[in-house]
Write a structure and sequence with these properties.
The protein has helices spanning 12-15, 40-57, 117-130, 179-183; strands at residues 24-27, 30-33, 63-66, 70-72, 82-83, 87-90, 96-97, 100-102, 107-111, 135-140, 145-152, 155-161, 166-168, 176-178. With 185 residues, the protein is an alpha+beta fold. The protein has a single domain, classed as tt1808, chain A (Alpha-Beta Complex). The chain has a six-stranded mixed beta sheet, with helices on both faces.
């Protein structure tokens, strides 16, 4: 099967049969086509964040991974939700296998693109909160703002950071990211 039908509901097993040349996410059984390759600015921000997290985590039990990387949020249940965040931090290696993560990662980072901003801010915000992702960063390269969403009592509390701030990564005690270095052109 190369292209899923938008009015059908699917599972991870279906997702695995789709054309490898096309990128999809599956949210509650509904397929969402992913945008073509992101802009160079998006890629630069992603690379810089990945580099900082990778270096910080060297020799520690947590790991950072970048897209494409399948995150199966409800694999033990309906297995109808697979997302591909820009970056994920996973501290439980038993969740790793195949093409990604089975279960909830500790941290997710989505870097906004014009075509994904609404989806990342609304659909994925709700989804990550529902599946108890402890920390969700929404990174906007255009405004140079990071919304760090921290799970508290089952709901996200949002902290905003600008390009001159250092943003703490709460799931990784001692990790602070200089956003000037991330956003600098």
């Amino acid at each position: 099967m190369s292209i899923p039908m938008q009015n059908e509901r699917y599972t991870y097993a279906d997702y695995c049969t789709w054309d490898d040349n096309e990128r999809w996410e599956l949210i509650e059984g509904i397929p969402y086509a992913m945008s073509p390759a992101p802009s160079w600015i998006h890629q630069r921000v992603s690379s810089r964040l990945h580099g900082v997290l990778f270096n910080f985590l060297s020799g520690k039990p947590c790991e950072v991974f970048h897209a494409p990387f399948d995150v199966r949020l409800n694999a033990d249940d309906e297995d109808d939700t697979v997302v591909q965040p820009d970056l994920v931090v996973i501290c439980d290696n038993s969740k790793l296998g195949g093409t990604g993560c089975t279960g909830t990662p500790d941290m997710v980072v989505e870097i906004l693109s014009p075509s994904t901003a609404r989806h990342d801010r609304m659909v994925k915000f709700r989804l990550y909160q529902q599946y108890s992702v402890k920390e969700y960063w929404i990174v906007d390269p255009d405004t140079k703002i990071v919304q760090a969403c921290l799970l508290s009592g089952g709901l996200y509390v949002v902290n905003m950071y600008g390009d001159t701030d250092s943003a703490p990564v709460h799931v990784l005690p001692g990790c602070e990211i200089s956003l000037k270095d991330v956003f600098e052109l």
